[in-house]
Amino acid sequence: MIDPSDLLVLLAVARTRTHLAAAETLGLNHTTVARRLKALEREVGDRLLVQGSRGWELTAIGRATIVAAEGVEKALQTLPGVEEIQVGGLHGMVRVSSTEVFGLLVVIPAFASLRKIHPHIRFELVPVARSGWPYGRTEDLEIAVTRPSSTRTERRKLIEYKLGLFASSGYLQEYGTPETLSDLQKHTAIYYIESMLEVPDLDLLARLYHSSPQVLGAMSALAQLEMTRRGLGIGILPDFLAKNEPDLRQVLIPKIPDFPITYWMSARSENLRRPEVRAVAVAIESQTRLVFDTLKE
Predict the structure, then answer these.
(1) CA distances from 251 to 128, 181, 183, 224 (A)
(2) If I label 188, which of 10, 119, 218, 246 is the partner at 20 to 30 A Cα–Cα?
C-alpha cells in the first residue's frame, strides 16, 4: 500500500530538485525525505528519480507517478478548513530566476499586479547573470537570454531586443566619436566581466575588437549603464535601457551589425501544472508586452 504522504514528498523533491529544499518545504529533515522516497520506490517497484547535473530528475515512471501525487495534493486542498487559505484566489510559493534588468522592469511589476488579485501567492526572485547554474537550483520559472535546450522544459519567446554601443556626451567630447571599427579599438569598453560570462549570446567583445581591449567590467547591466553615464568608456548596452538616457548617444550606426538578443521563459512541465505558476507566467508575458511597447514609444 502506497502511503499518500510519500507521494507528497516525491512532489516536493520534483519541484525543488533537492532533498534539502524539499525538507524545508515539508518541515522534515533531509534524511527523512530520502528514506521516504526509498520506501515509495520500493512500493512502486522502480526508480522514480535520478541525479542529474542540476539536481534530481524524474524518470519516466516518476513522471507518471507525479500525476498521482498532484491528485493527492489537490484532494487535500478540498478538506474542511483548507478553503480558508483559498479565500482570495490562488496560493503557494513561486520562485522566478531572471536577469537583473528584466526582473526589475517586468517580473516585479507583473507579480505586484497579480498579487492584487491573488494575495496568497508568495514569490521569490533570484537574480542571475549567467546561464549555467550549480547543482540544486529550484526555480519554478527561468528567464534568460539563451534559448533553453532541454527537452524536459517548456519554453516561450518573450521579447527580442538589441545591444548597441553607447557613450555619454561628455565622454565623446573628451575622447572623440568613433566613426569606424578601427576607431573603436582606441576606446575603453564597458561590458560584462569576460572570465565570468557564460552566456554565448552575450559574448560580443571578440566581434567588436580586433585584439583584447581595455574593459571596465561589471556583471550587472545597471552598473554598466551607470559607468557609461559617468563617462568611463563606451558601453555595450541593451537599446531599451540606454535609449531612455538623455545624455547617452549611440555610436557606430550603422557601421556595426545588429546584435539581437532574445529573452526566453522556460519551466518544467510539472511546475506549469501548478495554477499559481501558470498565473505568474501569464502575468510576466502580459507585463513584457506592456513594458517593451512603452519603451519603444
Answers:
(1) 28, 11, 11, 16
(2) 246
For residue 80, the model assigns a pLDDT of 58
Q: What domains, with CATH codes, occur in the chain?
A: 4-76 (1.10.10.10), 87-159+263-296 (3.40.190.10), 160-261 (3.40.190.10)
pTM, whole model, 2 decimals? 0.70
Q: Are 87 and 252 in contact (CB under 8 A)?
A: no
**Digit-coded pLDDT (tens) for 148-173:** 777 778 899 999 999 999 999 999 99
| 203 grid coordinates | 559574448
Where residue 132 falls among pLDDT bands split at 50, 70, 90?
A: very low
